[in-house]
Structure formats: structure tokens, C-alpha cells
Amino acid sequence: YVLYKGTRRSALDNIPGPVSRSFLLGNMGELMQNQAGLTEFSWKEKYGDVIKFKAPFGVDRFLISDPKALQHILQTSGYRWSKFRERRELSRLTSGRGLLYADGNAHKRQRKVMLPGFGTPEAKNFLPLFRSCAASMCRRWSDILDSSEGQAHVFNIPEWVSRATLDAIGQAAFDYDFGATDDHENELGKVYQNMFLNAFGAPSTGLLFSLELSRFLPISLFEFFNDHSPSPRIVGLRTVTRVANGVAKQLISTKADALLEGKGKKDIMSLLVKANLGENPKAQLSEEEMLAQMRVLILAGHETTSNTLSWLLYELVKDLELQQKLRVEIRAAEKVAASRGDSELGIHDLEGMVLLSATVKELLRFHPVALHLFRTANEDDVLPLSTPITTTTGEVLKELPIPKGTRTVLSIPTYNRNKKIFGEDADTFNVYRWLESDHIKRDVSLGPFANLATFSGGIRSCIGWRFAVIELQAFTVELLSNFQFFATPKIEKIRREAALVMVPTIEGELENGSQLPLRVTFAPKGE
Ligand code: HEM
């Protein structure tokens, strides 16, 4: 295979990219073991938006952030580009054969069954629920502050927001209260805490190498290996599966009973159960798929939002002026709501808060917690390019012929920092870019939200992006309305840890899990 790959000539041979220092690992170490995004940002500066690098055994792979090329792979080509087989196996391990794993017709069927639960009205209806989950966490913090010296306390933010967002997804998706914010012994809350970091954080050279090798194994052998491996990382994932499947089975049977008694609810799980009780086989899921969807929703909808929230607070303690301006905007909206006789902000209030909206956009641009999408071309293809590539032999390519089987890594953070789209200051966190009419160019439309790649794009784009945006807004309002956040000395040592999602950790303290210690005090009322 290596000889075949090494000697075959391809139109892609002369695409510029970094030199590989290791035949066995290629450039994979630099890409996957460094802090999130750092390697690809520096490659982009040197080589552009399409970069050839080496995977193990000297095999070529491509890192792509060119807008038109991404648009083609994610939107135009449907199922002609598939996820890497070994990455799908990671999805099976973390969430079963649900939406994240499924491909082709199976994916189409599953997505069709799930979509009705994720529209704009459904997401907007969840605002009070998101607010109440955020408020529960704020009440716990207030109790702690009340009994702390000087009414100030250092909270490890990810630990708390992870539980609150688990409760939010539990109630929105399953109408089920995991009680994770109040009960730190909650089993589901415990197994999901630091799951990504424990399973995928700081991947060793051996791990990266064996993941690459595994793609040559027959899939049944690979699955058998993972179902029996004694590796602590995989044992941890199997524990999550056992605990989550137990809760899912219980939930499905409760919901089926409720539906039969005519007491069905509108949560997503109830919709799935209802579809399965119907006659149409094209709108049904197998029992395995049904259990998997619950894990998909917890996995895809919980750590993503909670880590994004942690990164928001990280930015706000570095820019106290922005924190204060947001609080002023919240107070003004609270006043308007109060004058209407409402004690809480509604969806229209949130929609009218321009600084909040700009901050959420900038947060999702600058800290996209899902970093990479891995796609293989299932057939020969031609990629359109926004920026022509000058090859190492001086040829200028306006489009890129792609042979079947080409493996690509689509870089979300690099696209999100494209200077031609987001402005010359794309490498800095600047919420005001969203408030200036000329700052952002929208020549190519990519993702479902703010033209970002953060939620991917096309037929496999994030199904829960509307939930995520409203949940982020609701939590931001609740947190800033109640508290002020300040940096602690550890802020200088925060790392953007790449663990499938981007997790804050402290330099040299990876074994302590996700960490962002911030000093919290009550926010003055009446600003
Ligand atoms: C800031 C928060 C979020 C981010 C950054 C995010 C990002 C993403 C990305 C990049 C994908 C594509 C993954 C791939 O193709 O491999 C994805 C897929 C998905 N997301 Fe999200 N997501 C977020 C929140 C949510 C929420 C709240 C939910 C559920 C309520 C959710 C449910 C899903 C599902 C089910 C998929 C699979 C879609 C499919 O393959 O058809 N996500 N998300």
C-alpha cells in the first residue's frame, strides 16, 4: 500500500505544505498534539488555504480551509464525501450508531426523523428552560458566595457549566431532569464529566499511530477490539455507554407509555418514540439507533455548549470593559421587560441585544470547540477554490482535481480566521467586527450561523445550532446579570486543549481535567 501510494503520481503532488520529520507519524503529531489550532494557523500563514501534509507512512493528506472548497465538500457534494472510517468508529464508541455515525441513506433517514424537533420555534420555546437551568446554577453560586469571606469565591467554571448544560439538554431533549447541578453524585453527570478530555486529550504518539493503522483492519475486527480493549480511555467510553443506555432505555419506555395514554410531550425523544409507533418505516429508528440518539444528543449538545461558555468567560475576564458593557445592555433590557410587567427577558429582548448577539458570534468564530471535520472523497472530484494555489513548481491552480480516496482534514478554526472574510484583525477577539457594516465579507455562504464553519455546513451540519445559540445567550444573560468575573493568576497558564472538542486546561495540570478557575463576586444591581 505504502509503495503504491508513494510511487503513484497525482495532480496533488506539488501542493505546498510542511516537511514531514517522521515516516511513521508524518505531521500528525504536530497537528494533533499541539494546542488547538496553533499548528494549522502557522501552516496557513506559510502555505495558504489548501495544505499538503503527511499522514503516517508518508501518505499525503490535505488540510483545507479554503471557503469555496469547504462549501463544495460540505454542501454541494451531498454524501459524495464521507467521514473517515476510523473516525466513524470513534463516533460509534462515544454515541453508538446514531446520527454522528450514520452515512448515506441511513443518515438521511435518521436526520429526517430528528429534524422536526430542531426548528426555530422549537428552539425559541426552550428559552425559559435554558434560563431556569442557568438560574439553578446561579442560585448555588449565590449560596456559596453568601457564606464566603468578602462574598467572593473562586469557581472552576467548566465543572459547573458542564453540569448545568447537561441538565439543559436533559430537559430540552428528553424532558428529563438529570439533576446534575444540584447533585454532584449524579451518575450520568459523573460519567460525562471530563469524558472528552479523558478519552481524547493529549493523544500519545502510539495512540495517533494506532488510530491510523486501524483503518486497515476489517471493520468488524476494529469494533471487536474496541468492545474488549483494556485501554483506560476505551474502558471509560464503555462505562459512559452502559450508564447512558440504562437511562435511555428507561426514558424510552416511560415515553412510549405516556404516548399510548395520550400524554405525550414535545421533547425530542418523545418525537422519536412517536415516529416509531407510526406506520412509516422510512420515519423509524431501530432500537439500537434510538438509544444511540440519546447519547448523540448528550454528546453533541452538552460539552460543546459548556466549553463554549467557559471560553466566553475566559474572554470576558480579559476584557472587563466588554463584560461591563454587556451588563449595561442586560440591565437596560431588564428595565424594558419590567416596564412591560415581565420579570424575565423573552426571546424578542434577546434578539434586540446587539452587543450580546455580536459577542456570541465572535465567541463561536474565535473559539469553535469542534475543531476538525475528516472527509474522504468517495469518487473523483474537482474542488473549486476561492484563492488559487501556486504549486511548488510555480503552476497556478484555480481548481483542484481530487482523486477518489483522497483524505482531507477540514480546519474549522482556520476558516473562521480567514482575513478576506473576517477582516485583517481575524486573529484577535473583537466583538465589534459584527457591528461594523463593512468589516465582514460574505462572498461564500458556508455554515448555518453567521457564515461560520463552527457548526459545519450542508447535510451534516449541526442539527442543534439554534439550541446552542439561544442557550449561550440565556446563560450569558443570567451569569452576567448576577455576577462579576475576574481572572486569577492561573489565567496565564490556560491551554486550548484539543480533545476532539476544545477544552480549557492548565499548563502542566492535565490530570486535573478541564480547568478555568475564575474569581466570582455579586454583580452590583441597578447599573
Ligand atoms: C456551541 C455548540 C455546538 C457546536 C460548536 C456544535 C458543532 C457541531 C459540528 C461541527 C457538527 C458536525 C460534526 C461532524 O460532521 O462530524 C455538529 C453536528 C451535530 N450537532 Fe452540534 N454543535 C453544538 C451544539 C449542539 C447542540 C446543542 C446539539 C443538540 C441539541 C447538537 C447536536 C448535533 C448533532 C445531532 C449533530 C450531528 C448532525 C448530523 O450528522 O447530521 N449540537 N455539531
TrEMBL record:
Cofactor(s) the protein needs: heme
Primary location group: membrane
Gene3D superfamilies named among the record's database cross-references: Cytochrome P450
Location of the protein in the cell: Membrane
Any one GO MF annotation of this record: iron ion binding
Keywords, ordered alphabetically: Heme, Iron, Membrane, Metal-binding, Monooxygenase, Oxidoreductase, Signal, Transmembrane, Transmembrane helix
Presence of the UniProt keyword Ribonucleoprotein in the record: no
Pfam families tied to this protein: p450 (PF00067)
Binding site for heme: 462
Pathway: Secondary metabolite biosynthesis; terpenoid biosynthesis
InterPro entries assigned to the protein according to its UniProt record, in alphabetical order: Cyt_P450, Cyt_P450_CS, Cyt_P450_E_grp-I, Cyt_P450_sf, Cytochrome_P450_monoxygenase
Domain of life: Eukaryota
GO cellular component, one term: membrane
Family in the record: Belongs to the cytochrome P450 family.
Protein's name in the database: Cytochrome P450
Organism: Rhodocollybia butyracea
